[in-house]
Amino acid sequence: MTDITKEGREFIESLDKFCGFNRKWLVKIDEPTDERYGYIPTKRPIEKYLEYGVINLDKPPGPTSHEVVAWIKRMFNIKRAGHGGTLESLWVN
User: Fold this and answer.
1) What are 2-14's pLDDT values in tens digits?
2) Taking burial as the number of CB atoms within 10 A of a residue's CB, which of 4, 13, 56, 88 is the most buried?
3) Are 33 and 22 in contact (CB under 8 A)?
């Protein structure tokens, strides 16, 4: 059995390092994490990302928001998808 608590802590520390933070984490009690209650992001199956995930998309000019959603549904072979807000670019003069 892998030590997912340790792996989770290492993942958080790697995010800190990536963001330029240099802080030390204080662990009061090192309790094991039950694998039934979630995933470390780097080990989460792609099916779970598709089931609960969000795609952050920078839509290029041209295709409509509706077209992009249809492409996503086809690419990932999913029945339901949508967009929150507009995917259209804002033009500032």
Assistant:
1) 566 778 788 888 8
2) 4
3) no
Residue whose pair of structure tokens reads 């998808």 in the numeric block: 81
Spatial contact of 4 and 35, defined as CB atoms under 8 Å apart:
yes
Full-model pTM: 0.44
- pLDDT tens track for 13-65: 888 888 888 888 887 877 776 777 778 777 888 888 777 777 777 777 788 88
CB atoms under 10 Å from CB of 65, counted, come to: 15
Helix intervals (H) in the chain: 4-18, 46-52, 65-76
Sole residue written with tokens 């520390």: 13
Cβ atoms of 14 and 41 closer than 8 Å: no
Q: Which two tokens stand for residue 70?
A: 């249809």
